[in-house]
Design a protein that fits this description.
about 290 residues, 15 helices, about 0% strand, globular
Length: about 290
């Protein structure tokens, strides 16, 4: 097997492969669209509010492909996402703007660390520093300059706190968030999970962002969220690896099947027909994601 961008012992692989991070997908998305430029890009170029599972597929294909795939797989999915982003531009927004790429990636890193350390325990300072540096690849793989990513965790914390305190949640963001938290058209089997997903998503948001969205919260709800996460912390670490890493394995297999289909078409000489992209049609943008 061709080597990937990281070896199997990399801290980021230990962290990002945990299926529990899917519980933070809503939080990361609402934080991303809290930035007005991201929200406008999504509103103008994406139908993911009607097809949230396609958004999830694109996000997971990118994250797992870059972090766990071979170098060629990481490059293929990165090129696909970069090509998609190149079309997301308009008055006041550009998906290739390094500031937006850093913000999107910052939401992924912060959400991953929040859930991982709450459920599985804190990383050592050395591992946390390493994981932080490694997370930059999810931005740089699609063209973000390395210099744009805050230099260390202290710089990131300053950047994060400043952004959270000042970012203006727009009406467009509120409309998108409403369609995500109260979705329509999901498969019947997934509908019972919607209220829990909504509760966890709203509860995990930083208080200033939650308030800007207009979502009510209370000490009682905070205690219920704490109990929910404590219960998860008690049970989740004892699950078998095939469960804890099931999402990673599923989406990586899915990505490889789509890449193989594209290679087969090219090999068969189907150059006169558009090759199927390795990202879903009408995926969300601008985002390298949660």
């Amino acid at each position: 097997m061709e080597d990937g961008l990281f070896d199997s012992a990399a801290v980021i692989r230990r962290v990002a492969g945990e299926s529990l991070l899917l519980a933070g997908g809503g939080r990361a998305t609402l934080l991303q669209i809290a930035h007005p430029a991201v929200a406008q890009g999504v509103a103008n170029h994406s139908s993911f509010t009607e097809r949230p599972l396609d958004r999830l597929r694109t996000t997971m294909s990118y994250v797992y492909g870059v972090l766990y795939g071979t170098r060629s797989e990481a490059q293929a999915i990165s090129r696909a996402v970069a090509a998609m982003h190149s079309r997301v531009t308009g008055p006041g927004y550009d998906a290739n703007d390094p500031d937006l790429q850093v913000w999107v990636n910052a939401t992924l890193f912060d959400t991953a660390m929040l859930l991982y350390e709450r459920v599985l325990g804190p990383l050592s300072p050395t591992d946390a520093d390493t994981c932080y540096r490694q997370y930059s690849v999810l931005a740089t793989a699609i063209g973000c300059p390395e210099s744009a990513w805050p230099t260390d965790r202290a710089a990131f914390t300053e950047y994060w706190n400043q952004t959270i305190a000042t970012i203006p949640v727009s009406d467009a963001a509120r409309r998108i968030a409403t369609t995500l938290l109260w979705p329509e058209g999901l498969p019947l089997a997934l509908r019972p999970a919607i209220p829990l997903n909504r509760f966890v998503t709203i509860g995990l948001l930083p208080a200033p962002i939650r308030s800007s969205y207009g979502y009510p919260w209370s000490p009682r709800r905070e205690r219920l969220l704490d109990r929910t996460l404590s219960g998860l912390a008690t049970a989740y670490p004892h699950l078998p690896g095939r469960v804890r890493f099931a999402a990673r394995d599923f989406y990586l297999r899915d990505l490889r099947k789509r890449l193989a289909r594209r290679r087969n078409l090219l090999t068969a000489g189907s150059h006169n027909s558009p090759s199927p992209p390795c990202h879903p049609r009408n995926s969300a943008a601008p985002s390298s994601v949660p």
